[in-house]
Amino acid sequence: MKVRVAVLGATGTVGQRFIQLLDGHPWFEVAALMGSERSAGRSYAEATRWVLDTPMPAAVRALTILGNEATLDTPLVFSALPSKTAGEIEMRLARAGHVVCSNASDHRMEADVPLLIPEVNPEHLELIAVQRRRRGWSGAIVTNPNCTATGPTMALRPLHDAFGVTKLLLVSMQALSGAGYPGVPSYDAIDNVVPYIGGEEPKVETEPQKMLGTLRDESIELAPFVISAHCNRVPVLEGHLECLSVAFARTPDLATLTAALRDFRALPQELKLPSAPPEPLIVREEPDRPQTRRDRDAGRGMSTTIGRIRACPILDYKFVCLSHNTIRGAAGGSLLNAELMYAQGLFR
Amino acid sequence: MKVRVAVLGATGTVGQRFIQLLDGHPWFEVAALMGSERSAGRSYAEATRWVLDTPMPAAVRALTILGNEATLDTPLVFSALPSKTAGEIEMRLARAGHVVCSNASDHRMEADVPLLIPEVNPEHLELIAVQRRRRGWSGAIVTNPNCTATGPTMALRPLHDAFGVTKLLLVSMQALSGAGYPGVPSYDAIDNVVPYIGGEEPKVETEPQKMLGTLRDESIELAPFVISAHCNRVPVLEGHLECLSVAFARTPDLATLTAALRDFRALPQELKLPSAPPEPLIVREEPDRPQTRRDRDAGRGMSTTIGRIRACPILDYKFVCLSHNTIRGAAGGSLLNAELMYAQGLFR
Amino acid sequence: MKVRVAVLGATGTVGQRFIQLLDGHPWFEVAALMGSERSAGRSYAEATRWVLDTPMPAAVRALTILGNEATLDTPLVFSALPSKTAGEIEMRLARAGHVVCSNASDHRMEADVPLLIPEVNPEHLELIAVQRRRRGWSGAIVTNPNCTATGPTMALRPLHDAFGVTKLLLVSMQALSGAGYPGVPSYDAIDNVVPYIGGEEPKVETEPQKMLGTLRDESIELAPFVISAHCNRVPVLEGHLECLSVAFARTPDLATLTAALRDFRALPQELKLPSAPPEPLIVREEPDRPQTRRDRDAGRGMSTTIGRIRACPILDYKFVCLSHNTIRGAAGGSLLNAELMYAQGLFR
Amino acid sequence: MKVRVAVLGATGTVGQRFIQLLDGHPWFEVAALMGSERSAGRSYAEATRWVLDTPMPAAVRALTILGNEATLDTPLVFSALPSKTAGEIEMRLARAGHVVCSNASDHRMEADVPLLIPEVNPEHLELIAVQRRRRGWSGAIVTNPNCTATGPTMALRPLHDAFGVTKLLLVSMQALSGAGYPGVPSYDAIDNVVPYIGGEEPKVETEPQKMLGTLRDESIELAPFVISAHCNRVPVLEGHLECLSVAFARTPDLATLTAALRDFRALPQELKLPSAPPEPLIVREEPDRPQTRRDRDAGRGMSTTIGRIRACPILDYKFVCLSHNTIRGAAGGSLLNAELMYAQGLFR
């Protein structure tokens, strides 16, 4: 018997990724779909402009899309709702007893809401008890971070543990899919770089400190480092490539740093969660890797790939970091969160 | 009577840009073309796979390409030779009395060779006298910098003068044209970012200090700041967009910094050199500018466009900088160097 | 004294092209702009997301956009309105005495409305007298054809005259800009071809016969040939490239056919209209031209470029035809129509 | 025990596809690799610039590449050699007893060499006996067609059988990968269409008639229809999309035509060959499908997808046809040929 799940915002691109990744999932099965007024009452096949490169799974084609105010009977809910819209709906469902794994930014920075990457801060799930007690909920809200913060935070986990990160300067080259659909007009994308993504840099500059923070007395003490981010849109379909420069409290030599990244394994690997990649961090030795198109699917889009580790003349080290923005950075990240919670008995 | 000029490496992409920019030039006219063995003896039209988007100028079509060992009678020579090849040939011609304006990297960092951007360090042309004396040449070699170093160095000129640059961290998103022709295979370019360009970062990390250095006792004292560069190839045709973070000895407020950039004018503007843009630095206020495709042609490809000036949480300020890599960053930069030298009577 | 003109639908991409092409025009000057409710009352600079690669002309920045029901005092009006919206508004203005040069499809196929390419059917302007008489208007509506029909129709003019076209089969590879802005989502465009453009094929299969038709007794007798069109969207920014196969009543030899295309000149060239290209048809000899990016700007975007003329094993000849879709195929085509009408004294 | 196979031209892009598709194959395993002088003697990992988006299979990394004159002990040989080079080497190996499945064009049109698509003309394998007898070989050469001819020929098989094809006019929009690596320079590809591919049209205009021809008295009587092809290079990575117009001896109605395509099954499906797609032809009903990126991987790159079937005003019907050029159109097609031969006991 699989756990029945609902997907909110099911017709959008992140919603489609949820449905794609849940197709054939060993633990979960899609039982309900929710959508905006425009879609509610229609079949999923009819209401959805499916944009992914694999076909729409047969199992969802005939499901009737429910409106955002519907009552659900699925223990688990994935939210691909746009920010602003997500806030209220997710709270209503958590209050009604559902575990909501949300990709939306609305609740990410709230003190009692886990902002979770299972390889990074699984212990933050203890906040759920706090959240339930404070808010009187039987369900819960758990969030995954912004897609651009995801890869760097995974890379920083072993580095922060071993050497104490003090500064991170990053420049992103982000995929078009990050803007959803229709998203970036092609007339703005072809033969162009847009050096700005509204609202992105503040998220990237604050979310990692929460994830790498320490749970103490029912709240999270932010990790004490500073981030400077510059976010750019480049003409690639999927995959956020980022150039990072990092300073440490205790600067390691290059071999030690590289080993820390390469040897990193964490709870999802230990638990063999269905969506966990064997290697959360893949370190490439070739001078010209990772490349966006060739490496974004590493670990079925769940690994973060690192390359070009070398000294930085200004901070301590610099390197390149690639993460699939709509898999690990969105639906896949949220799914892995749910798998961890399920493995830990947080819902059934 | 226009000055007759020769173009070395005339069939390559930078050579083509020289010929394109010299078409209709008020002071100079193309009188000789040099090429490799493969091309020598053939007409330019026959030997050249013209790749630019404007037609091949009629005036050069019938010119017979000379071999690299030919004797020239043009006072001025532009070199679009590849590095390694350029070194010997340029020296032979300088020794023979020609003024060689070179885009090649071979001689850039030699102590008595000006590495010149007319808006940045026109006084470095005094090195020519040193060069001639030391080497016993009647001609001279003057170089322009690497395309990726060009825009940032122009932007740093007024900032360094006013506030004393101490650190520069930059990440580039470079155009495909920078790799020449055939250059980057399309199968590597489409839907991809390659986070590596062989040999590029060392140039970008050292050339600006020479250009912003001080001429003292017949040699250049390097400007005392450190640069960290990360160079990436993105799928755009022309234009290098770079994200810069800068620290200063005397940190200005935002308005003062912006005004220093916006108000910058220099000798080429004063002399009204034919290729000098009215504004060497254009500061854009919109949050999403400069964009590579939309702004690379500003000032006919000779202006550097700056945007998104804001505080950097790690260094002092960060901003975006765009420069046309094959115009200002290559043939156009070299041409402006020649115009300055001509205006100053260094050849006739 | 220049003729004052208004632009309807001024904020869209075709509207922007009108404004770009009218900047510095020797006969016309922009005096009024109209826009939708969303834009009306705001300055053009404020209301417009300018997407072209040259800057917004200074002269229009401060113009206040009028609503679509405004009264105008400009003799000439260019319409960049979307189809459906255009119909009523254009009729109101024609009734009120304005000459409306429209890029919209609404009135193109009406019996008393000229569907005009000045090189193709200038004599169809005689329909204006019919139109005015029948409708009781003091103004007039004149239309230019669909962008995909434009290049082929220009190419067919000399061929139909000399050899009698009987069949035309064409396959288009159309630019993204043809869909307007935001138009095609980048997620649909990169690394993709979409073999369908809604509503396009019927226009391409019917408009050429009207333009190449014969004015007889105040109406146009359609040219008696049949067209089969297949329209595709490919990832290029501007320029529609089309593969044509043509059959003739009197099949010429290759040299005669080529000469007919190459030697074609028409009334706009004779009158030296400001936007008329010296060569309406440019025939390229190289095996791999025209190429979309390299040839779309030929004749400042007003020439149609033809190449690869050769025998077709099924019809008689096949060749490639390239036309700039938002210049000759939209705003530039409409502007040339207005220039012809002005030269012929149809308004002042 | 798997059949040991060799791959000729193993380091190129088609060679890489062979190796990718053979990884984990149920019947065949890579035992030998051959390459040019430049590669011979080096390990595959060292000699190969791997360009595909999945990692190089571990099993081949350490294989030492043999020179083209080496002796092989594998019953089966796949040839990814470039044309011209392929001819002699393939003959030497066939003479020496190897079954050579070749993607090269050199032998395709020879009278006693099968030009094979298993769904189209499996009976042409009878030519092998003729070939062996005439040439005194113990091995054999079997070829697969040009990538651009492959999809249309598959689509024509059921149509020709039922309705008798008389004319085919096709326009292709071909992927960059078809030119190999480095292949098309990115500076020619981005924002561009090149309406020419050297040597392509003659192949497309002649190979289908051989494949759809009738084996009679030990030779193939060409199918009596005429083809006109226009081949274009568009900026997509993989997948050739083609617009076809077809005339028939016995014109069916639309439903009958569609059913003939949709219901087509052939020998590979019956034999359940490992690489055979369940549906050789997939018919899409949506107006905007197939799209290159979204449908090229249908049937793991082995299905041909058809869409937009409709009447053609000039010939009888027109439709769109998409086939993966480096899978079904190259290495995958050759592999399916080998599977059919193995299933029929032509080697062991």
Summarize the model shown.
Four copies of one chain form a homotetramer. Chain A has 348 residues and is of the alpha/beta class. Chain A has helices at 13-22, 44-47, 58-61, 86-95, 127-135, 147-163, 186-189, 200-211, 254-262, 267-270, 292-295, 327-343, and strands at 3-8, 28-35, 65-67, 76-79, 99-102, 140-143, 165-174, 214-216, 219-221, 226-233, 240-248, 281-283, 304-311, 317-323.
Description:
The structure is a homotetramer of 348-residue chains. The first copy, chain A, is of the alpha/beta class. A 6-stranded parallel beta sheet of chain A has the order 3-2-1-4-5-6, with helices on both faces. In chain A, strands 10-7-11-14-13-12 form a 6-stranded mixed beta sheet, with helices on one face. The first copy, chain A, folds into 2 domains: 3-145 and 331-343, Rossmann fold (3-Layer(aba) Sandwich), CATH 3.40.50.720; 147-324, Dihydrodipicolinate Reductase, domain 2. Helices cover 30% and strands 23% of the residues of chain A. Chains in contact: A-B, A-C, A-D, B-C, B-D, C-D. The interface between A and B is large, with 43 and 43 residues.
Record the SSE blueprint.
The structure is a homotetramer of 348-residue chains.
Chain A: E1 3-8, H1 13-22, E2 28-35, H2 44-47, H3 58-61, E3 65-67, E4 76-79, H4 86-95, E5 99-102, H5 127-135, E6 140-143, H6 147-163, E7 165-174, H7 186-189, H8 200-211, E8 214-216, E9 219-221, E10 226-233, E11 240-248, H9 254-262, H10 267-270, E12 281-283, H11 292-295, E13 304-311, E14 317-323, H12 327-343
Parallel strand pairs in A: 1-2, 1-4, 2-3, 4-5, 5-6, 7-10, 12-13
Antiparallel strand pairs in A: 7-11, 8-9, 11-14, 13-14
Helix pairs in contact in A: 1-12, 6-8
